[in-house]
Amino acid sequence: MSKQTETRRKTVKDIAAAKGKTPLVCLTAYDAPTARLLDPHCDVLLVGDSLGMVVHGLPSTVGVTMEMMILHGQAVMRGSSEAFVVVDMPFGSYETNNDSAFLNAARIMKETGCQAIKIESGTYAAGQIAHLVERGVPVMGHIGLRPQAINVDGGFRAKGRTTGERDRVIAEARAADEAGAFAIVIEGVAEDLAADITAEVSCPTIGIGASAACDGQILVTHDMLGLFDWTPKFVRRYADLSTSINDAAAAYADDVRTRRFPDAAETYALRKPEPEQR
Ligand code: KIV
Question: Closest residue (by CA) to atom 1 of ligand 1?
Fold first, then answer.
């Protein structure tokens, strides 16, 4: 390998090898400066399609496009150098058949430089996962609460709380694992179900609202930084950025209106003429 192609980034092997060891640290990222701040702390940065809701103000992730994922994926790749970067495949880009799943996955990987893609994987998606992995696309599965399916579920609801649903989530986990997913996100399930799945599958599980029984954890970064008034039960707020931003904007507005900003230190002055050389 030449110097130019050498990389310090974690690889799919590092992620897979974390099964049962120190929990994997994963966060979402959508832009270069935030990716730069998160990169040294994270094993995985996920360019999640949650960006449709938290960055673009959409009511769900259903309206997210390939172009949005690619644009944000490129920014996160530019801002990071160590974490393993995964980009979500948006609703409608992989469900139809294996060929369109591969074309869209390959486009995301080529145009962003990311190392893997994630799909919300019902049992039907085992074919797509195997097809992609065989052709060089590492796939992260996503089971349990699948936000792209909210219109079928009637909202964001925890999964696996009845016997029938529990069996369905276990079947989703087995399907993704057997098809070759290198990791599986488990969203919105009770602890005993997450523990059973984690014990059964060969790849690491990454929980969001799925207890500490998983091999790693992921949160939506905007949630854990406290950018919204409301956060779901499973989120811990590690900062209160909405208050910080609100206070900063109010102080700036006050300074501008009272002409305290800008002051002399923030203003360019005419340069003094240089003394003539003798
Ligand atoms: O889109 C996203 O951010 C996700 C995570 C919540 C796992 O899928």
Answer: 48
End-to-end CA distance of the chain, in Å? 58
- Report the candidate in 48, 47, 44 with the shortest Cα–Cα distance to residue 23: 44
Whether 121 has a pLDDT exceeding 80, the answer reads: yes
Q: Are 169 and 188 in contact (CB under 8 A)?
A: no
Q: Are strands 139-144 and 116-120 parallel, antiparallel or unpaired?
A: parallel
User: Cα(49) to centroid of ligand 1, in Å?
Assistant: 6
Type and span of the H or E element at 69: helix 66-79
Percent of the chain with pLDDT over 70: 97
Would you call 44 helix, strand, or coil by DSSP?
A: strand
Q: How many alpha carbons lie under 13 Å from residue 219 in its C-beta half-sphere?
A: 17
H or E stretch including 116? strand 116-120
Q: Could you identify the atom of ligand 1 that is nearest to the CA of residue 28? A: 3
Residue 120 beta carbon below 6 angstroms from any ligand 1 atom: no
Point out which residues pair with 27 in neighbouring strands. 45, 219
pLDDT digits (tens, 9 = 90+) for 137-162: 999 999 999 999 999 888 888 888 88
As beta bridge partners, residue 219 has 27
- Please say whether the beta carbons of 214 and 206 come within 8 A: yes
Listed in sequence order, the residues at least 6 apart from 66 whose beta carbon sits closer than 8 Å to its beta carbon are: 90, 93, 104, 107, 108
**3 state DSSP class of 196:** helix
12-239 CATH pick, 3.40.630.30, 1.20.1070.10, 1.10.340.30, 3.20.20.60? 3.20.20.60
For the whole model, what pTM was predicted?
0.94
**Cα 76 to averaged position of ligand 1 atoms, centre (Å):** 15
